Here is the input.
Amino acid sequence: MIEGIFVDGLIFSIMVIGILISFRVLDFPDLTCDGTVATGAAVATITIINGGSIFFALILAFLAGTLAGMVTATIHNKFKIPGLLAGILTMTMLYSINLRILGNRANVPLLRIETYYSILPEKFSYLNSSIAVLIGTLFVVLIVKVIIDIFFRTDLGLAVGALGGNEQMVISQGMNPEYLKLLGIGVSNGLIALSGALLAQYQGFADANLGQGMVVQGLAAIMIGEFLFSSNRISLITLRAILGAIIYKTLMFFGRKYGYLINITPNDFKLLTGVLVIISLWVAKSRANASDRVAKKNAIQKTKK
Amino acid sequence: MIKIDNLTKVFYPGTVNQKVAINGVNLHIEEGEIVCVIGSNGSGKSTLFNLISGTYPLTNGSIAFNDTDITKTPEYKRAQYIGRIFQDPTKGTAANMSIEDNLITASTKGMKGLKISLNNEKRKVFSELLKPIGLEDRLKDNVGLLSGGQRQALTLLMTVMSNPKLILLDEHTAALDPRNADVVMELTEKYIVEKKLTAMMITHNMKFAIDFGTRLIMMDEGEVILDVKGDEKKKLTVKKLVEIFRNIKNKEFSADEELLNV
Here is the structure.
């Protein structure tokens, strides 16, 4: 049971890292995410059903997501429309594309087919099957985290980070912001699709409606993570996103399990998640105001010395 | 170095808000010149800078840099050789990143690769560079924590670090308190001399414009109405400058006089 929450949270955390890149690092409110989760799930499912290897399915899902993200970035770059609208456009188009990928079915099961989550217990037969699944998921999450951590320490990664903080600075340093957005939004959606690919295999089906409301859930997880500790180091930022994802899934689990006691059903979760995000925003705002005052005071004192 | 011919910029052409911001400006700036640009608000100084750096497309005319036509070159490409510092100290640095990350991003111009350039050797160089602005121990602090003066000094350092050929200073000390403004201005002079930069600087301070630099340009209503250099510039006084302005425009400008901070 507890392993189940962790696996759920870890799969979700890959998506949260993706959302973190678009919303937090790039400061680009990208709603493509709702569509790319399902794209990732659909691509991986169809690849596996048609006999592709699991590794190949994951890579293909990542690439499909990257492509979707690049479409959003291109719409935003070339037609100078706000990122929000570009994301909604791609997301809406993706819904039809996802149905196409799934062969015009809204739901494709992965029954009696070898998936990542069916081979894990076989490969680690000496372990409890749920532990094996947990370790397998943790493995993928760690690979993603390490790659992302390293990427954002490279010169290119730092430039992507600078773009989110100050687009003018990136231009002043002689870089094309359009190219950086293409890259950042692409990678972000690639990760989100990868998360969808794992999710489809874990729950045993791909669903065209899989992504509904995922952005808000991801934001909630990011904000929960931000309450844990503050840092400007990318390794800690991704770590807290992962922890936030797990905490969010834990909360949802207990909501499902004990919610009936206070008359809450899973139907209310979207509302509650939204409220959670709003409360987080409010707390973060008042905390930022307070720490801003302290930091400015310290900065002034430091220079006087 | 930079050759501007018949430069014209019209905002909102064809609408009731149509405004000619720059009206047929010709300007040739030689390498090593330090040009102070003065003029009242709305005279087109900042628009001129925006056109040189490529922020706005121009309506008519041409701009050439070292004999290469850059009229249609996008801003990020011009930034390879034109550095620019804005009045707003937040525009030159990324607040969400540490000082060292900002510096590493600025240390080379142009698109970056998948290389990790930041190492302890670089940190040592950076902390040496940061000494004059007193930030040598704060490499890992976020830039957002710095005061406006510190951020502007950092911006200056970052701009100079990437070795631009020309720097455009758009009233870069105007938003700072007098003490910080002096510090940043001193640094500016130091870097211009050290790196032998060509510079254009917008200022509202007439006395400063006379004392500083090798050439002085006065703008009004989108035109260059005064252009002096060398000995002629040395002989200028604030009083003379005001007189010239009055004669050329042939109008009373009591309102402008206040703006010009005589």
